[in-house]
């Protein structure tokens, strides 16, 4: 039961979001919503915001992207349409007619508030019909007289007794008078033809309802007697046999439905949905909201069409960096500036991987190329991503395009690059009150090189003395990570962007990799590396070259 609708596409960065990752997601979603009207692009993030990113968002008054822990498809990703349903008080006959008209075999049952009461199928109707053969007692399933009139297309002649439900035994007055009167007791229902004298005697005997068949006229004295005794008097256009069958088909749907319907919510994973459908006797499940109201109905045939969330990845292209369940996602594009990783797709997609200093540079460049009017707040966020990822345009990864676009974005945002850069830097290097685990996880990357699994973190400081005082606990946290997550090497790069003389490194594990890559000696789990390092451009490539030589 699907309907066409505008699909959501999540523009999302890596699972340890930094300012470049978050701001490029916001900027690219803005760009795509202007250039592609067939979809709705939603900026998203795969983890908590750091202080630097929070500062940038607050500075330019932009809300944080939606937090997504997993991109696994859920029921909400199915284009559900308003389901066909039946009220629990409707007749079985009306249900059968509705199923025939709508060509469905199963249907949700709801109450007057559209809360789900159960589920019903053709097999329930068939079972009810078979079980009703020879059955002539409504004690267990009273029939609403209004529903009966509707089902029989009958005419109510009299109901002075205000009979609302018929609940007695059903008799067909097809035998002689004495036999009929002997069998009928007070409260019973009698289906009768044009036997005038028997009609009067049955009313006198106190039957609950008298249904005259074949549309024959009902005499005035019979009508008067029925009114006097409070007997419900109806005229049916059908013959006696059809009338009895329709009486039994006038029972409420609630009497034949399954009250233990299998239900799911909108955010139930598709894997769970498939399992429940396969296990259901009705091969279908009912979708409800948090208040138990009917929202959708999913059958086996609805599962023939694959259901997956759609996403555009920014600032990463490796599985280990991506949000959970990335393998279940339909990736539409990748916008990045890192080395090519291991994400693969089933179909060709658009990939823009540009070796500049920031993904925000890539996004800003696309906006300029397409002559997009960049609002000040978007310009400010893109500038923040560039300044963050290039350490105020000082890292070796910084290109001339990074500098030119930074100047252009600063002018649009109305800020001075140097002054605003210092604000960003100050927001990012506050380590007071943070645990060693928080400091290391804030900008942590997992890298696989030549069969070696490395965990590499990078942090900025203005006062190296702060790190000296906390060196022991930082090294202990690196060792804990190495053991718990089975890394071959864990590294913390400590950068002072105002002092480009060296990079301090704390590390645990197979330190020979760093020694070989940079020609240094590691002592007491620490060493100094010359120059301001970029993890992406300097540190990781040097390790890859060293490990390649080692394994060659």
Descriptive key words:
single chain, 552 residues, alpha/beta, inorganic pyrophosphatase (n-terminal core), CBS-domain, Udp-n-acetylmuramoylalanyl-d-glutamate--2,6- Diaminopimelate Ligase, Chain: A, domain 1, 4 domains, 6-stranded parallel beta sheet, 5-stranded mixed beta sheet, 18 helices, 24 strands, 37% helix, 21% strand, elongated
Overall radius of gyration: 38 Å
The CATH homologous superfamily of the largest domain is named inorganic pyrophosphatase (n-terminal core)
- Main pleated-sheet profile: 6 strands, parallel
CATH class of the largest domain: Alpha Beta
Major sheet: arrangement of strands: 3-2-1-17-18-19
Could you walk me through the main structural features you see in this protein, from its secondary elements to its overall organization?
The chain is an alpha/beta fold and 552 residues long. It has four domains: 7-73 and 309-428, inorganic pyrophosphatase (n-terminal core) (Alpha-Beta Complex), CATH 3.90.1640; 86-131 and 254-303, CBS-domain (Roll), CATH 3.10.580.10; 142-250, 3-Layer(aba) Sandwich (Udp-n-acetylmuramoylalanyl-d-glutamate--2,6- Diaminopimelate Ligase, Chain: A, domain 1); 436-551, Roll (Diaminopimelate Epimerase, Chain A, domain 1), CATH 3.10.310. The longest helix is centred in the C-terminal third of the chain and has 21 residues, at 464-484. The chain is elongated. The two termini are 57 Å apart.
């Amino acid at each position: 039961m699907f309907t066409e609708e505008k699909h959501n596409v999540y523009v999302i960065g890596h699972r340890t979001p930094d300012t470049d990752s978050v701001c490029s997601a916001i900027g690219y979603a803005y760009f795509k919503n202007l250039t592609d009207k067939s979809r709705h692009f939603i900026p998203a993030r795969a983890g908590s915001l750091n202080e630097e990113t929070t500062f940038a968002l607050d500075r330019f008054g932009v809300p944080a992207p939606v937090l997504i822990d997993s991109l696994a498809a859920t029921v909400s990703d199915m284009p559900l349409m308003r389901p066909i349903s039946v009220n629990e008080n409707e007749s079985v006959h009306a249900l059968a007619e509705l199923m025939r008209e709508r060509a469905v075999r199963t249907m949700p049952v709801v109450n007057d508030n559209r809360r789900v009461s159960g589920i019903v199928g053709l097999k329930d109707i068939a079972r009810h019909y078979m079980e009703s053969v020879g059955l002539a007692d409504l004690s267990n399933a009273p029939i609403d007289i209004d529903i009966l009139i509707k089902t029989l297309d009958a005419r109510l002649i009299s109901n002075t007794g205000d009979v609302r439900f018929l609940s007695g035994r059903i008799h067909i007055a097809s035998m002689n008078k004495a036999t009929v009167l002997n069998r009928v007791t007070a409260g019973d229902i009698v289906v009768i033809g044009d036997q005038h004298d028997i009609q009067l005697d049955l009313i006198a005997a106190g039957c609950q309802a008298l249904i005259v068949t074949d549309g024959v006229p009902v005499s005035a004295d019979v009508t008067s007697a029925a009114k006097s005794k409070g007997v419900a008097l109806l005229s049916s256009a059908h013959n006696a046999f059809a009338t009895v069958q329709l009486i039994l088909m006038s029972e409420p749907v609630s009497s034949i439905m399954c009250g233990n319907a299998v239900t799911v919510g909108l955010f139930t994973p598709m894997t769970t949905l498939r399992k429940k459908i396969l296990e259901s006797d009705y091969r279908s499940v009912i979708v409800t909201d948090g208040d138990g109201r009917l929202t959708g109905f999913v059958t086996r045939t609805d599962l023939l069409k694959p259901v997956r969330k759609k996403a555009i990845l920014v600032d990463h292209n490796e599985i280990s960096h991506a949000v959970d369940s990335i393998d279940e996602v339909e990736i539409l594009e990748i916008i990045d500036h890192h080395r090519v990783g291991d994400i693969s797709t089933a179909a060709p997609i658009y990939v823009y991987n540009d070796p500049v200093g920031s993904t925000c540079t890539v996004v800003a460049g696309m906006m300029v190329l397409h002559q997009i009017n960049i609002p000040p707040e978007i310009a400010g966020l893109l500038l923040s991503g560039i300044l963050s990822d290039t350490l105020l345009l000082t890292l070796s990864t910084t290109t001339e395009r990074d500098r030119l676009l930074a100047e252009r974005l600063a002018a649009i945002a109305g800020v001075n690059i140097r002054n605003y850069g210092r604000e960003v830097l100050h927001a990012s290097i506050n380590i007071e009150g943070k645990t060693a685990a928080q400091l290391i996880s804030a900008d942590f990357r997992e890298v696989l090189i030549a069969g070696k699994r490395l965990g590499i973190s990078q942090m900025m400081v203005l006062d190296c003395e702060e790190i000296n005082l906390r060196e022991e606990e930082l090294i202990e946290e690196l060792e804990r990570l190495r053991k718990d997550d089975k890394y071959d090497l864990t590294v913390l790069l400590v950068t002072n962007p105002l002092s480009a003389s060296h990079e301090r490194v704390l590390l645990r594990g197979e330190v020979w990799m760093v020694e070989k890559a940079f020609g240094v000696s590691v002592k007491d789990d620490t060493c100094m590396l010359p120059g301001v390092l970029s993890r992406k451009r300097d540190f990781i490539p040097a390790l890859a070259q060293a490990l390649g030589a080692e394994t060659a």
